[in-house]
Amino acid sequence: MARESGAYEGASRRQPVREPAARTYARALPVVPVRARGLTIEGADGRRYLDCVSGGGTLALGHNHPVVLEAIRAVLDSGAPLHVMDLTTPVEDAFVTELLRTLPPELAGHARVRFCPTGTDPVASAVSLVRAATGRSRVITVADEPFHDGLFPRDGEAGQEPPAGLLLEPVRSEAGVFPAADALVRHLRARTAEQAVPLVVDETGTGVGRTGAYWAFEHSGVTPDVLILAKAIGGSLPLAAVVHHEDLGEPGEPGDSDGAGAAGRPASPPAGGPGASGTGAFRGNQLALAAGAATLAHVREHRLAEHAAALGGRMLTRLRALAAEFACLGDVRGRGLMAGIELTAPDGTPGTAARLAAAVRRECLRRGLIVDVTGPGANVVRLLPPLIVTEEQMSAVLDRLADAVRAVDRHRPDGTAAIRAGHGPR
After folding, report:
1. What are the tens digits of pLDDT across the range 93-130?
2. What is the DSSP secondary structure assignment for residue 371, as one 8-state letter?
3. Whole-angstrom Cα distance, residue 308 to residue 297?
4. Mean pLDDT throughout 149-158?
5. Which of helix, strand or coil describes residue 227?
């Protein structure tokens, strides 16, 4: 352990001069992980932490889940190629089969799957697809609520054409954990269907059981035309895909090897607009496909979405009770095992809420709990525990968080006195 402790000190000292300042997590969470399993991370300093960041929601099954490790080892031991750039392989076929099994029949029976590099590429690919399919360029992103129908042209209105597509996140996680109301999603589906506008749902952070349904759009009972998938679908490894209804067509150019689909499958739609080439060489990595197929199957077979719904509901109830106790805690939002608790400044001083959120994160870390801070004002503490979290572990998470909030309330970073809330539960 002395050697690992020395490695911890050396790595922490070297990182600031080797990597850019945008290392968001590393700046806020000075932990050098050396081992991890499930919800638990062990640092090089010997401390253990409960991880409620889960790689930003990437780790649906937590760290190093046995089914994921077994799937990765099976590919490594088989001698199969690790990278073949869209050629059909048994690993890819197994992943696509399992993915389609999780989708509504009305989409799964007419679906086309296109693998993309991670990051912004799947969004760009989806936007390119709907633009090419409709011949229009304007794509509306739903970023506020209530949604204004003025973004759609009224019947018979001259001079404005419908958009090429409407892009929706079922939960705007990075914006501060704002779930879209089911009634709003149904309304948007109806409006887009009326005008033959493709509905694009970005399940990057919400898919694979996170919100209490296998796919978050299922809460509203609608079926989108295009799905953007990433994070959890790779089973802890980088993987992203766009799934779309076959009616949207295939704008890939014949003979373009970089934009061609897998053997036996229609050509993939390119990113960057009609006629563009494919989105790069590193898509559909075999290890990620194997890990992803194992994860998708495990979540489905063990009904982990239902577990997330039940345990997540209890988590939100307890967080709201905590918010009722302290004036520095505001709105509690979330769905399933995705929750955000907003820090507020009772005195209205600019920047106070962000400092309070940062202080809560530091106090959590001192208590062996890793949480995230998100939102444009950096004032929302976010919890993303893996779907395999137990009731006992969840209780420990919430106990540590409550203790951290009490510590911050006693010693406020803005120098003001602690203020207890006088309102009832929210």
Report:
1. 999 999 999 999 999 999 999 998 776 789 999 999 99
2. -
3. 16
4. 56
5. strand
